[in-house]
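Sanity check record (used in CI):
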Amino acid sequence: MITFAYAGRYLLDAIGVSLDSLKIAGGIILMILAIDILFEKRKTRREKRVEEALDEKSFDDIIVFPIAIPFIAGPAALTTIILLIGNYTINTEFQIPVILALIAALVVSLILMIGANFIVKFLPKQILHATARVMAFILAALATQFIIDGIKASFNI
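Expected output for Putative MarC family integral membrane protein:
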């Protein structure tokens, strides 16, 4: 993800996509993700895809469809990191906290994944659902800000 944070900008330039349009598209993707989490549609779809893949005995396809990687380094995460790094292209010293925050988030994700079974046993499901919805709401606010920033920059507002 750190490599993509820096190389992603050049890739976008090569295909003619501006950072502003990425902000708008990334904001829309993050908003859809947040809405799915808020209304618990994502979990149902993911469980259905896993069941279908296992029922069909097409284990080669399991490599293709997402299980854990999109949650950590999927389109939403990659878009977010490019946008955050892109905000500080002139002052590269401000990129250091973004990279440190990314590393910290990845370490926390690793710890939580390792200890997920232990954590879930002791926390009531209501708390887990409430936490997920609060985080989804924060994600929706972040998505909205990305969209607003992209529109402002695109139209020089």
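The chain has a mean pLDDT of 77. If this sentence no longer matches the regenerated tokens, the check is flagged for review.
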